[in-house]
Design a protein that fits this description.
- With 186 residues, the protein is an alpha+beta fold.
- It folds into 2 domains: 104 residues, Topoisomerase I, Chain A, domain 4, CATH 1.10.132.20; 68 residues, 2-Layer Sandwich (Gyrase A, domain 2).
- It has 4 helices and 6 strands; from the N terminus they run H-E-E-E-E-H-E-E-H-H.
- A hairpin with a 4-residue loop joins strand 5 and strand 6.
- Helix 1 packs parallel to helix 4 and helix 3 packs antiparallel against helix 4.
- The radius of gyration is 22 Å and the shape is elongated.
- It starts with a helix and ends with a helix.
- 26% of the residues are buried.
């Protein structure tokens, strides 16, 4: 691997870490309705367990309401059971054509717990980015040791890796700040 490939690999892996953080944070329930809350719900669809969004349309028409419209009415009861079994603290109501899920207000204690969870996800992402930096630096030092790059090139490349690391850490901080604000919002 040459230094360009090492840099590109580190950049790609750090970007994937940010994407993963977004995905994890989307599952964290705030006081606001978001279809991502139901991403973990699996429903029995003709003998196969599939994600809810592959058997129905999930939308949030209001800030405190999720609506699930199955593609087939015969799935209504199965979807309602799956949501209750998912233990998300939600109470779906089936009106015969769709399922409405009101999103209750979060207690202050629950908000604080969610902020701790958000911070944990953020710390995990920061650790992942730092591990990627370490791997890239190790590859670069190996190139230097094998006399494939000079001391000056090594220094320049290590600085480049540090720059993208700092950039990604700042992105993580901004994402966490926004999510914490969203969780604490009443």
């Amino acid at each position: 691997m040459n230094q360009q490939e090492i840099f590109a690999d580190a950049q790609t892996r750090m970007d994937k870490t940010i994407d993963s953080l977004h995905h994890e944070l989307a599952k964290v329930r705030t006081g606001r309705a978001t279809p991502a809350l139901l991403d973990t719900v699996k429903v029995d669809y003709y003998g196969q367990m599939v994600p809810l969004n592959q058997a129905s349309n999930v939308s949030a028409p209001e800030p405190r309401l999720l609506v699930v419209q199955p593609w087939e009415k015969s799935l209504l009861a199965e979807i309602e059971r799956a949501i209750q079994k998912a233990d998300l603290g939600l109470n779906p109501s089936n009106d015969g054509t769709m399922i409405r899920i009101p999103i209750p207000q979060l207690s202050e204690e629950r908000r604080k717990d969610l902020v701790k969870l958000v911070k944990k996800f953020g710390e995990d992402a920061r650790v992942a980015v730092r591990n990627i930096r370490r791997d890239a630096n190790d590859h670069l030092k190996k190139l230097h040791k094998n006399n494939e790059i000079s001391e000056d090139e090594l220094s320049v490349e290590l600085d480049r890796i540090q720059e993208i690391t700092d950039k990604h850490i700042k992105k993580i901080e901004a994402i966490l700040e926004a999510k914490e604000k969203e969780v604490l919002e009443i």
